[in-house]
Amino acid sequence: MEADKIDALLGQPKGVDFDQYGGYVTVDPNYGRALFYYFVESPHNSSDKPLVLWLNGAANVIFLESPIGVGFSYSNTSSDYKLNGDERTAEDSYTFLINWLERFPHYKTREFFQAGESYTGHCATARRDNSPAGTNARPP
């Protein structure tokens, strides 16, 4: 968690009142697939706030770039890019969330919501079906 903490961003005013994190979470170590995220904790009582996974770009919010090949998310195996699709994107997003929660375990018991825009609404359904939070269960 602390390894992903961002002290300041270029152009960001000094002394912001929130913690921010960014980095890569591996979703397939065999092929070297990793998704990039940017996470901002709520500046007020973050321990009482739910967690929102914003797909494609108030509460604690994780911005996840998916599928691989979009933005900073990548694979070390070039043939992976030809295999992108809704199912792979949903699987990678689910694996990302599980692995991300290992870095930020204090979010495992929070309410969880997912949101997105454009075509992500289609993929979010597959993600919800895979998501423990989508079945009223808590991520491990």
Q: Which helices and strands appear, and what pairs or packs with what?
A:
Blueprint lengths: L4 E2 L13 E9 L4 E8 L10 E5 L4 E6 L20 H18 L8 E5 L3 H11 L10
Parallel strand pairs: 4-5, 4-6
Antiparallel strand pairs: 1-2, 2-3, 3-5
In summary, what is this structure?
The protein is an alpha/beta fold and 140 residues long. The protein has helices at residues 86-103, 120-130; strands spanning 5-6, 20-28, 33-40, 51-55, 60-65, 112-116. The chain has a single domain (17-134), classed as Rossmann fold (3-Layer(aba) Sandwich), CATH 3.40.50.
Number of alpha- plus pi-helical segments: 2
How do the SSEs run, as a string of H and E?
A: EEEEEHEH
- The tally of domains stands at 1
What is the alpha-carbon Rg in Å?
15 Å
What is the CATH domain class? Answer: Alpha Beta
Report the count of strand segments: 6
What characteristic shape results from the CA principal axes?
A: globular
CATH level-3 fold name: Rossmann fold
**Shape-level CATH architecture:** 3-Layer(aba) Sandwich
Strand content: 25-35%
Taking pLDDT < 50 over at least 5 consecutive residues as the criterion, the unreliable ranges are 132-140
Structural class: alpha/beta
Q: What's the arrangement of strands in the largest beta sheet? A: 1-2-3-5-4-6
Largest sheet: 6 strands, mixed
Helical amount: 10-25%
- Average pLDDT works out at 81
Distance between the termini: 17 Å
CATH homologous superfamily?
A: Alpha/Beta hydrolase fold, catalytic domain
